[in-house]
Design a protein that fits this description.
Distance between the termini: 27 Å
Structural class: mainly alpha
Strand content: under 5%
Oligomer: single chain
Radius of gyration: 18 Å
Number of strands: 0
Length: 202
């Protein structure tokens, strides 16, 4: 019966596409170009220290994100612009099937961050860094990361987050810190959406 749920099918399709992206990256890097997994940032070296760096990095950037959001809110209010809710937020607010909500929460807070970090930082950032240097690689991958989230108001905050993710990856040499930040951020957003849903103000 769950497969008959349009929302679940959409998330399931997204999951399958994400898995195919991971397979492509691993095949392209490891099989075609004979790279080791560490070249993509896949390493457990100093795992807990890098998790700690991720948590501290996220806490440190929260004031910046709040400031950016405040500036955006000021200008949106000035121009009477009311942003649309993101599709995934709408799904969380309207969907009542707990199995769907559970799977979508796991996808958003765990699977999504791992897959996106492997692609954007492990694969894309490394490819750009070799050609245009660290700063421009950070900027371009962060901007692409933000643009693909397809939300005008969220573009700058997500881009700032993307810069932090690339910085942590560059400094630690593994994806552990950036995945940690990504998971904490997405988990926080999922929690906020559920809070709004419980309060009935969505």
């Amino acid at each position: 019966p769950l497969i008959k749920n349009d929302n679940f099918r959409m998330i399931l399709n997204s999951s399958i596409l994400d898995i195919l992206v991971v397979v492509f990256i691993l095949y392209f890097a490891v099989i075609e170009h004979k790279e080791k997994l560490i070249a993509l940032g896949v390493s457990s070296k100093n795992f807990f220290r890098n998790v700690f760096y991720g948590v501290i990095g996220y806490i440190a950037i929260i004031p910046v994100l709040i400031l950016v959001l405040a500036v955006i809110a000021f200008f949106a209010n000035m121009f009477k612009y009311v942003p649309e809710k993101q599709a995934v937020v709408e799904l969380f607010l309207k969907e009542k099937d707990t199995r769907f909500l559970f799977y979508t929460s796991i996808f958003a807070a765990v699977l999504g961050p791992i897959i996106e970090e492997l692609f954007f930082r492990g694969f894309m950032y490394n490819a750009f860094k070799k050609r245009i240097g660290i700063f421009w690689a950070m900027l371009i991958t962060a901007a692409t990361f933000a643009a693909l989230h397809a939300h005008a108001v969220g573009f700058l905050p997500i881009m700032v987050l993307g810069m932090l993710l690339a910085y942590l990856y560059e400094k630690t040499g593994t994806l552990v810190s950036s995945i940690t930040v990504h998971m904490v951020h997405n988990l926080s957003m999922v929690f906020l959406v559920f809070l709004v849903k419980q309060l009935g103000v969505g």
